[in-house]
Amino acid sequence: MLTELGGLVTGIVLRATDGSGHGRPALCNICHTMQPGDQVALFTARRAGDAGIRGDSVGTYVCADLSCHENVRLAAPLAPNEIRASVDRRIDGTRRRVESFVERVAAGAERVV
After folding, report:
1. Fewer CB atoms < 10 Å away: N or C end of the chain?
2. Predicted TM-score (pTM) of this structure
3. For residue 50, which of 113, 112, 106 has the smallest C-alpha distance?
4. How far apart are the first and last CA of the chain?
5. Rg (CA), the chain
6. 99 phi/psi in degrees, rounded to 5
7. Model confidence over 55-107: pLDDT tens digits?
8. Greatest CA span in the chain, whole angstroms?
9. Distances (CA, A) of 108 to 1, 5, 15, 64
10. Of the candidates 58, 103, 23, 79, which has an alpha carbon nearest to the alpha carbon of residue 32?
11. Phi (first) and psi of residue 61, to 5 degrees
């Protein structure tokens, strides 16, 4: 996962958990779309710095095929109970949530330029 933080491109490595999806619909924490339960997976990333060396990680539920960038651009809601926001607002929200997740993973890391 890549995003711009503080004017620099910052990337983290994600790992999907080895769990089978459940039957209930689930919400992607990045694009905020409802998906069938087997299409959302828990992704984790090892924290930067000393915390990562100790094995600490951060996780969030994300579209299993990482199609968030496409989902936020769809013209119609994905589920009957989903409220349709403007595409620009959905894209901005997705960007902010990616930045927030990457910041949580990178907290405590030394910046390398």
Report:
1. C
2. 0.80
3. 106
4. 18
5. 15
6. -60, -45
7. 999 999 999 999 999 988 875 656 666 666 678 888 999 999 999 999 999 88
8. 46
9. 18, 14, 20, 28
10. 79
11. -85, 130
